[in-house]
Amino acid sequence: MQLVDAHCHLESSDFSSILDKIISDATDAGVIKLITSSITIDQWEISRRIAEKYKEVEFTIGVHPWYVKESDLSVCSRLKESINSGAIAIGEIGLDRKIAAPDFELQKEVFQEQMRFAAEKNIPVIIHCRGAFNELAASLKKTGLPQRGGIIHAFSGSSEIAEELMEMGLSFSMGGTLTYRNSRKRSEVLKKIFPRHFLLETDSPDIPPAGTVKPNVPLNILFNLQAASEILGISREEIAEATTENAKRIFRFN
After folding, report:
1. Which of 15, 172, 208, 228 could hold 155 in an S-S bridge, CB 3.0 to 4.6 Å?
2. Could you tell me the CATH superfamily of domain 3-251?
């Protein structure tokens, strides 16, 4: 059984002294790839170095909506400089209405700049979205999407929103929230996006599965896999196969 952690943050200081063990624990459990996503320009080089050191790690570069600054309006020039360093996607980027700052209009401008770059270069995207799915859909219609699509990680929208975004070419990764109390909405979404548009993630060191402690680690993808199996009523092996193939198709690694 092979698994892909489609979204994590190995750059985190929580892992700096234990990264060898964090990665070996995950690979021993069947994780063949970990996709680590930067959240600020300052992290891009850290992400690249981690992926260079560990063959199991791929990396993505972007500016997360929580950390956008006015200077990030010129982010595309930095993306052009850095994209040949081996990044497999643009991310983590997105929109978040549930925070007071940074200003939402600034978030939107920086997000759209990064989306235009991804669409132009046909590089997949990893998107964060909370409380802003209508604005997200409107932005994507304005900027376009890369033909290779991308994922919305930690997806929390409805099955109707999922349907609209799937028609645009996006898929969805889900993690620790799968293990939380039963949710009819979450079950409906999972059944709609499986098998072709569902990926597994941990978002480690954040969103630990129920019953585990912080920091969350990539090994905990096994809890998320088990929860998905119980919700869908199918085997862990079938889910592992589908989600791994989806990750390979979108991000194009072996």
Report:
1. 172
2. Metal-dependent hydrolases (3.20.20.140)
